[in-house]
Amino acid sequence: MRRTLIAANWKMNHTVAETNVFFGNFTVSLHTDIELLFCVPFTDLYQTKHILKDTGIKWGAQNVFPAPKGAYTGEISPYMLKEAGCTYVICGHSERRQILKESDEFVAKKVKAVYDNGMIPILCVGETEAERNAGKTKERLQEEIQAIFLQFEEPPMKEIVIAYEPIWAIGTGEASSPEKAEEVALYIRELISTEWGKETSQKIRILYGGSIQSNNISSFITQKNIDGCLIGGAGLKPNELHKIYQKASIKEEE
Ligand code: PGA
To answer: CA-CA distance, 254 to 250, in Å (whole number)?
Structure first.
């Protein structure tokens, strides 16, 4: 069975002082089959590590540069993230693809670099509103995922997570319908099955992201092919995230 993953992406929010306040107000009773993850700004990583190290809650980064070291001013290497205790690294969030013009190939190199350094990449994929309206959702996802296939000579033996985040649903309050997200998640699994085989496709966890809150999470994670959620805005509110995690736990107990 695939473990559920509830991942908060803090984006460019929370100073170290604010991180301390957040965790001072956040309580959770961890469920063994449901992972909880915080992807925090680079500057918060060591403080987050300090706070979470013995709790079972995981922490990770929101980006990485796909090279071991060298003349890449302003960038952070996979090994630096590993040293900071990151378990997961988000790769190719749509904000980076759109604002910083990251290409599918560059994102795919990040996924491979994270994987090769013993961490779990969370590859973000998703269509724009215009692509959705033009009926090009599957085409766009295929391009993004195909770029990953080109980086791997063999099917990955270790974990990779894929987050389906329709760009029009991010931060808008307008989530996808759970049925549509499930249809897309199934399509992603089929693409993986064709390239890497059924066994690998059944192991890969697929998340949904885009306007998830405590009042809609249940309808997403009860879908067969959705293994958790990537959460932006709601993950900055301790009480709301607590409720989201609790609702995810109820699914497991049913
Ligand atoms: P949101 O963001 O939950 O605020 O819509 C999701 C994301 O960007 O990962």
So the answer is: 6
Determine the atom of ligand 1 nearest the C-alpha atom of 233.
4
Output the residue whose Cα is nearest ligand 1's atom 3. 232
> Which residues are annotated as catalytic?
93, 165
**Predicted confidence band at 249 (pLDDT cuts at 50, 70, 90)?**
confident
- Pocket around ligand 1 at a 6 A CB cut-off: 9, 165, 170-171, 209-212, 230-234
Q: Which ligand 1 atom is nearest residue 172's CA?
A: 5
What pLDDT is recorded for position 251?
A: 54
Q: Which two tokens stand for residue 248?
A: 């995810």
Long-range pairs for 22-29 at CB < 8 Å and ≥24 separation? 22/236, 22/238, 23/48, 23/51, 23/52, 25/238, 25/239, 26/238, 26/241, 26/242, 27/238, 27/242, 28/57, 28/242, 28/245
Q: How far is the CA of 65 from the centre of ligand 1 (A)?
A: 22
Q: What is the mean pLDDT of residues 156-166?
A: 97
- State the Cα–Cα distance between residues 68 and 75, nearest whole angstrom: 11
